[in-house]
Amino acid sequence: MKKWTLSLLTLVLVLVLAACGSNNAANNGAAGNTAGDTSAAEGNAADAGNQTAAEPVKLVVGATVPHADILKFIAPKLKEEGVELEVKEYTDYVQPNVQLYEKELDANYFQHQPYLDEQNAQNGFDLVSVVGVHVEPFGAYSNKYKATEEIPDGAKVAIPNDPTNGGRALLLLQKQGLIKLKDEAGITATQKDIVENPKNLKIIEADAAMLPRQLAEVDLALINTNYALEAKLNPTKDALFIEDKDSPYTNILVARPDNKDSEAIQKLAKALTSDEVRTFINDTYQGALVPVF
């Protein structure tokens, strides 16, 4: 009897110890799984922390005033779309194309198509238009006279010395009846194309950027709108006469063949022709600039 009791107690003890061992193993396994899950979560968090947002694409765009102001207006919107816009301002019409061709710029925004065509032909560039944005009606200004009819015989008239804007000025003078050009004369008309000059106007050619400063020295100066605005001249109020709003000289965004279709350039083009920009141009320039989109 005692033997049988001892054997029974031994069996019970073995079963108890086995059960405890099984529970400990299960608990240890659960703890191990929890630790593994925690480690995995921590690892994923660390990986997520190491992943940074994609770097924005930087575009360096050359511009004159007022084009630079329009670009600055859309810069915050472009930044939200992953494009960091750097606006490089110029006071001349030459360097923006030179530096774009030499890849110091990604694009420029300051010129119309006839001027771009002339610069490409003259310099061997292959720059291309991306999109048309606005027209800047070309105007004639005077510090001495308030009306076209007051311009005297022998008056000194200053016009830009580059072929396209010089021709543009002569066409505007013809439209006012101050001169007459050959029938075949077009946007690249020169003084040699003048066939009638009833007031014997003395036409002086000068760098476009210098024309506002020459107003005191001449009777009339035909000035590109961007330079007029820089000189605090309001084209719609201060000009004796000005191009119609349907002027064909649309100011364009220009790029190179190798980048004109890039995502960043296309985002820039879309932003420049947005409803927000149309409103900004109309509200800010009051007719001195006219959106074409």
TrEMBL record:
It holds the Pfam family Lipoprotein_9. It is found in: Membrane. Residues 1-25 form the signal peptide. Keywords: Lipoprotein, Membrane, Palmitate, Signal. It is a lipid-anchor. InterPro entries: Lipoprotein_NlpA. GO terms for cellular component: membrane. Its main location: membrane. PROSITE patterns: PROKAR_LIPOPROTEIN (PS51257). A lipid is attached at C20 (S-diacylglycerol cysteine). CDD domains: PBP2_lipoprotein_Tp32. It comes from the Bacteria. Belongs to the nlpA lipoprotein family. This is Lipoprotein. It comes from Paenibacillus mellifer. The lineage of its organism: Bacteria, Bacillati, Bacillota, Bacilli, Bacillales.
